[in-house]
Amino acid sequence: MRLLHTSDWHLGQHFFGKSRQHEHAAFLHWLLAQVQQHAIDAVIVAGDVFDTASPPSHAREAYHQLVLDMHDAGAQLVVLGGNHDSPAVLGESRQLLARLHTRVVPSLDGAAAEHVLALRRRDGSTGALLCAIPFIRAREVRQSLPGQEAEAARQDLVAGIAGHYAAIHAAAVALRDEEGLQVPIVATGHLTCVGAKRSESVREIYVGALSAFPADAFPPADYIALGHIHRPLKVGGAEHIRYCGSPIALGFDELDSPKQVLLVELDADGLQAVTPLPVPVFQPLRRISTPLAGLERALAEVGAGLQPGQVAWLELEVVDDAFLPDLPARVAALLEGLPLEVLRLRRRRASQPALAPALQSLDELDPQEVFARRLAAEDGLDADQQQALQGCFAQVLATVQEGGA
């Protein structure tokens, strides 16, 4: 059984005002080529197929075209809902897409057995059973209790998520035994595990309740295909519990991470091999941090390193102690004739550390950090009051974010 594990496409994303449509189109074309080249049996998308709960029409069109292409290529497609995805949007076409060899699991609704899917080989035989687990919303596994301590809430959430995994895995084992199948069991997930590092484009999903899910709380599946973290990672060093990462860089801080999908090979004895397939770079992104005196040279070097026809998007930090009210105009003048476009520009004093709090813009902060800084500026609040207010804010934020998805 040959699977492709991918996640976090974020179709429809706008990046500092720029559309990623051409990158996503190129990636999906490349993905289809991998399916054909490697004779893939099934493709698993472990959440966040879309960037927002209301994706633009071109993003939906790309998604539906991929379904058709995968069907024509003879590969099964399984799409799991992520925290950015709307269960209603993903669910509206699931019955239609099922006729095209695509299974969509937008939410945790239904009995445990309903989340056990057969993954088919190209000849139609069952090659594996899938515990198809999407992003689990906190409200789906526990009730928020007034006055509940943070640690108790965390333990309840871990237990609730682990309980659903155990129940669905048990249903898969029961089905395997009932039908006398000699096949491996694969599970999915869309969450942050212990040891995973979030990038700036990754939204915290269990706000104020759970920072990371422990790897030992997963059931004993042969392979666990995870999404949500945009960098590839073996969870706890385990070969069989993996994040594949996003296929394109969704933030400038992801430029140091390889972009890939994972070719997963299994047989009746379990996991046999995991092979990363590097995704080409379809849109160059660059980060530059330079003193003002070296700015012209730094820009020229980046421009010279591009392939003909490429235009790089830049995050540019100019380090200088002088007051530079005309910095945007200076930068614009230096960019004349260069295949570069600055999407984020900031100045930092040489005496201040990189990303000093006073110099960070709102797009570099998550809502919790903004609220925490506002609390810190408020006189008359002791530590207990601040903690209580942060807990209330976390609940409101979680409600708003989950309501939008």
Automatic annotation (TrEMBL):
This is Nuclease SbcCD subunit D. The keyword Cell cycle does not apply. Belongs to the SbcD family. GO terms for molecular function: 3'-5' exonuclease activity; endonuclease activity. The lineage of its organism: Bacteria, Pseudomonadati, Pseudomonadota, Gammaproteobacteria, Lysobacterales. GO terms for biological process: DNA recombination; DNA replication. Heterodimer of SbcC and SbcD. Gene3D superfamilies: 3.30.160.720, 3.60.21.10. It comes from Stenotrophomonas ginsengisoli.
